[in-house]
# Entry
Amino acid sequence: MRILVAEDEKSLNRVITKQLKASGYSVDSCFNGEEAYDMISMTEYDAAVFDVMMPKTDGFTLLKKIRREGNELPVLFLTARDSIEDRVEGLDIGADDYLVKPFAFEELLARIRVLIRKNSVSKSNVICVGDLTVDISSRTVSRNGSIIQLSAKEYELLQYLAVNNGIVLSREKIEDHIWNYDYEGGTNVVDVYIRYLRKKIDDNYDVKLIHTVRGMGYVLRVEK
# Structure
């Protein structure tokens, strides 16, 4: 899942970004509201973390702007402004959640998982597609009861396919969600990782779950 972190306190921004990446997310970060708006305009994110008191464009103004444009990006405000009035205003203008600094990173992770579930096919942390099980909380994968070991990127790709199971995802959409702006790999990276996943998820089973839809992309589903 791809997340945007907009936080002007650079040390905190770096820590959040590092921790989110270590937790398996693809992360882009910026330090002011104008830059955040430009990134949101160019990229489809699964969730965003906004500071409220950012330079150039503050978090409240930024959220109002993207909501007026019909963008339903799940947004969590992360801020030192802890009054009831501030929380109510943030939620009333369209925020999905509000977390006050200082905070426990485990709580931030849990809240981000809730935001992502809101826009996914599955509303649970455990997703089952046929005999394949993906546990988002523990980041474990099993098929027919057997644990499958995946690399970080393989897991990210499988999780994205799983939360959108039954939906055909284009190569471009997958790449946009799994690899951030810093990626400098080859143009066929999605195809390469799909091959890796198939070898681990499908090769030893008669029923295949990862399917190519010619001219459109890939889908995780049980074929009838």
About this structure: Residues 4 and 28 are 5 Å apart (CA to CA). The first strand starts at residue 2 and ends at 6.
